[in-house]
Write a structure and sequence with these properties.
about 325 residues, alpha+beta, five-stranded mixed sheet, two-stranded antiparallel ribbon, DNA-binding
DNA sequence: TAAACGTGGGT
DNA sequence: TACCCAAGTTT
């Protein structure tokens, strides 16, 4: 074993956070659930979703046996709902077959990309493959003090991989990125890889890797609350944005208000504006006008009975505080 | 390849 | 306030 590998594994042995799957043995399915839930999601947030979802679905067959809407109900608030839709598709597609054990076979499944395929095959099945996530990319970029392409990062990760215990190695390097080699103010003094790192020899190790710089677009939108005794008008959303979740009538753009009212045959004079809300997506900043009217003879739904996105929950919370 | 896709926490 | 970013994938 090389010195850098020994140093990191030794550090990991005493500094690994006590995550559930490190404390006790869990199934490959539960590893897969964790990897998907943790995509772009913080550990502290993801853990409670993982506990909830693994408990309800100890295996893929039990997931496929219930409606997608049930999964989305457990997923609500976690974001990136395509993950849940793809996970459900995966469970259905699997049928009675066991989970594939290699990276290449896992890669064929919906919602499984290069990171997750390598993470699951190495952690759950011991395959010697290096996974590259944001942590690994950052650690390796700094070790080399270079702006690397994806391919170059993967090559470096493959070379560094400790093939005797690939799952443990992958977790160790991610753990380092997550707790020591952080995006800002990295704790180089505590880093087991410092003797091997080029970035730490510079005044600005946080310079690597380059940041993404995606600018949020500002958009206007209107939401309409149609309220009655039985609840609110809620519809199941379709498409990629919050698809599969339910939500209030919502429209973006200049003529959103007029279009919304026309499409629902609502008269102008029965409408009141109860407030403005802002809600951020990663790619856009939404300024929402919240309109209220009373239901004549619409089909009403209790918001507690259906999966909702945080955006809709915020709007409903405003309405409920207004009503009380 | 770049943009779309949620949400919440940190600075 | 504004911006960054988190165990990424899809198109």
């Amino acid at each position: 074993m090389e010195a850098a590998q020994a140093a990191l594994l030794s550090w990991y042995e005493t500094n690994a956070r006590p995550l559930p799957w490190r404390i006790s043995k869990v199934s490959a399915w539960e590893i897969l659930l964790a990897e998907i839930i943790l995509q772009q999601t913080r550990m502290e947030t993801g853990l409670e979703y993982w506990e909830r979802i693994r408990k309800e679905y100890p295996n893929p067959q039990l997931m496929a046996a219930k409606p997608q809407e049930r999964l989305l109900q457990l997923w609500q608030g976690c974001g990136y709902y395509a993950r849940a839709r793809n996970l459900y598709k995966l469970a259905c597609q699997l049928g009675s077959k066991p989970l594939p054990q290699t990276r290449d076979d896992l890669l064929e499944l919906p919602g499984i990309g290069t990171y997750t395929a390598a993470a699951v095959s190495s952690i759950a099945f011991g395959e010697s493959v290096a996974c590259v996530d944001g942590n690994v990319r950052r650690v390796i970029s700094r070790l080399r003090a270079k702006h690397l392409t994806n391919k170059e990062v993967q090559i470096n990760a493959d070379q560094l991989l400790y093939t005797d215990r690939p799952g443990e190695w992958n977790q160790a390097i991610m753990e380092l990125g997550s707790t020591i080699c952080t995006p800002r103010k990295p704790k180089c003094v505590k880093c087991p890889l410092q003797p091997h790192c080029l970035a730490t020899q510079t005044p600005t190790p946080e310079e690597w890797p380059a940041s993404r710089k995606v600018k949020q677009k500002k958009v206007q939108a209107t939401v309409l609350i149609i309220a009655g005794n039985g609840g609110l008008v809620l519809n199941e959303r379709e498409g990629k944005i919050l698809g599969g979740l339910w939500g209030l009538p919502y429209q973006e753009g200049e003529n959103a208000q007029i279009n919304l009212l026309n499409s629902l045959n609502i008269e102008d004079e029965n409408i009141t504006e109860i407030g403005q809300i802002t809600h951020d997506f990663s790619h856009k900043k939404i300024q929402i006008t919240v309109l209220l009217t009373s239901s004549k003879n619409h089909k009403l739904t209790n918001p507690r009975d259906v999966p909702l996105a945080t955006l809709d929950r915020k709007v409903i919370a405003l309405y409920e505080s207004e009503a009380s």
